[in-house]
TrEMBL record:
Domain of life: Bacteria
CDD domains in the cross-refs: Radical_SAM (cd01335)
Designated name of the protein: DNA modification/repair radical SAM protein
Residue ranges, annotated region (Disordered): 383-404
Alphabetized PANTHER family for the sequence: ENDONUCLEASE/EXONUCLEASE/PHOSPHATASE FAMILY DOMAIN-CONTAINING PROTEIN 1, TYPE II SECRETION SYSTEM PROTEIN K
Organism: Serpens gallinarum
Cofactors named for this entry: [4Fe-4S] cluster
InterPro entries reported for this sequence: Aldolase_TIM, DNA_rSAM_put, Elp3/MiaA/NifB-like_rSAM, Endo/Exo/Phosphatase_dom_1, rSAM, rSAM_sf, RuvA_2-like
Keyword set, alphabetical order: Iron, Iron-sulfur, Metal-binding, S-adenosyl-L-methionine
Domain Elp3/MiaA/NifB-like radical SAM core: 56-279
A Pfam family of this chain: Radical_SAM
Amino acid sequence: MQLIDKLSILADAAKYDVSCASSGAPQRSSKGKAGVGSTGGMGICHSFTPDGRCVSLLKILLTNFCLYDCQYCVNRRSSDVPRARFTPEEVVMLTLDLYRRNCISGLFLSSGIIRSADYTMEQLVQVARLLREEHEFRGYIHLKTIPDADPALIEQAGRYADRLSVNIELPSDASLIRLAPEKTVGGIQRTMGAIRYQQQAVEGEARAPKFAPAGQSTQMIVGVDDSDDHSILRKSQTLYRQFRLKRVYYSAFSPIPHSPSTVPLAAPPLLREHRLYQADFLMRGYGFRAEELLDKPGNLALDIDPKLAWALEHREQFPVDVNRAEPALIARVPGIGVLTAQRIEQLRKQRKIRYDDLRRLRCALDKANPFIVTADYRPRQDSSESLRLRQQQAERPVQQMALW
Ligand code: SF4
């Protein structure tokens, strides 16, 4: 098989893995086709380095042959798709070639499982080793880590890669047993634990060799089982705490050709994935707990963003006097972000904050108005306000938050 044919199969097969940044971005082509700069095609994804730079990565599988039969996956053993396999040297050659042409800044490499977890992991590590040691490649490398691979291989992978990720796949253990019978929750979490262990071993050791400096991430599929957002967010919260993950990525299940009867025929609303990202952002950046965002089983509201939903549910905490309240509480006001809350805190050391100051600080006042008090402004107490805010947001096109 020609290299270009392998590339076409293995770049396409990698598109279902969203554990890098650009996969969740909408396609911009007005005609629904990929165009210049489109993020909708396959082969290239984007990620952020630890210093905040956005980099383009060649996103491919080493192979889409797989011993496993995960029901939600197009590459499962029983799937009738064209198969291909790169050698490690071919991946290295492609990466260097595209890098030299300035098309990419790095590599996102995943793989189906061939022969065994250890053998597959060895192949992935081999690619990273060749790039780093033989070609002195200094670009970004994200390696997918195979659950239950030997910790010694994980240790090597982390020495070469900037980021490692292990897919948790599903929020509930029962769903994983049902839909991915060859995978185990224990195996996935052991591998996450092995990465965390290595990270801790080098933390605070100035002279220690780096280990996956961009941290570890994971991916959870949404809408392939009956897990609700309540259990998804709680699972993410546990993973963030337990393994200090940098990111949990959410992937709305996309029905696959000839899918088995165990998975749904229709995709969940993309807006559900978006609301989960917003809620996740609030947990990571704003100190919200999963239980605050959804205190009972069910899904996040689709017609309203989770921060506004929380504020409307907790009217007793508002209005917040921006001249007195803790910055953490000010940041919980819809329309005011963490950075703006910090700027408010700085400014009020000099003088009383007035309504126009918030305008100058670029607060979204149409959202914030009912929830704030300033030196010269107090909202009217009106029970119709909640309804107005809900309607106002429902009528607006969904806004992209800075999620990544
Ligand atoms: S292990 Fe499962 S999810 Fe991964 S490639 Fe194989 S079938 Fe797909």
